[in-house]
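Course assignment 3, question 2. Fill in each field.
Student: A.L.
Task: Predict the tertiary structure for the chain below.
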Amino acid sequence: MSDFDRVRDLALELPEVEESVSWGTPSLKVRGRLFLRRHEDPGLTVVKISPQERAALTAARPEVFIVTPHYENHRYVLVRAAELTEEELRELVTEAWRLSAPQRLVKEFDRDAG
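Answer field:
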């Protein structure tokens, strides 16, 4: 299974996730809002992330969480998904989804999960 297949499988477990194409690569959206996509380098996944979380992750594990000049002013990080455990990857994907999903959908998800 490819790294992006792992990411996609986790993302598709979340509510209202749809597969799409962004910048010529497979991507995942929630209600039309991009939160994940395969980077042109197939070993990397572009993941939506909060600025605070990105700063913490890139400082702690710069070999796994990467910010190129292109992404410096955007709420995304490049991730080497192969380096993450299933639990780490699930948390990252879920948080990316939360940043893009409408708040009402996030509340429904939290209620159903709780």
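Instructor remarks: The longest helix spans residues 86-100. The two ends are 31 Å apart (CA to CA).
Grade: pending
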